[in-house]
Amino acid sequence: MVGNLNMGYYFSPYRIAEMAMQVEEAGVEFYKNLASRNKDETTKKVFLFLADQELSHYKGFSVVASEMKQNNSEYEYSIDVARLLQQSIDDLKDSAFNTNSPKTDSIDIKKCLDIAIHIEEESARIYQEIYKSFIEKFHKVILKIINEEEKHLKTLLNVKEKLRV
User: Fold this and answer.
1) Level-2 CATH architecture, domain 9-163
2) 10-residue block means of pLDDT along the chain (165 residues)?
């Protein structure tokens, strides 16, 4: 007998926050790695500041996940939403947090901030796409993530403007 064709996939809103935590964790490691490979002390400090910002986001998303998990509602989908969402998150981590380039040890502050700004813009874009794809029950957690990413983007743009780079 073939498996039950009516079987669906279940997904909870808190899982989105947990996946966002994975991205932030990758960001912490990415910026720490760049700081350790960079020779310029000022640029190292900027990378370590960015790592701290990502760690702060990780902690914030952890709180969101805990709050959402208390509700523990699961919603049925006909496709494996978790796998598709995880693929989007993995693609973001792979493309944004790639330090295999030999040029990463000599990045100046301008390039450092440009990388961080690009990562935040891409993160916000992906979460906005996710927002469009999910039912209203998921919107609260996704909006919290988007707001945090956009806040960080504004901070980075302000830093870049103040440094005039």
Assistant:
1) Up-down Bundle (1.20)
2) 56 84 88 86 88 93 86 74 77 67 67 86 86 82 90 90 84
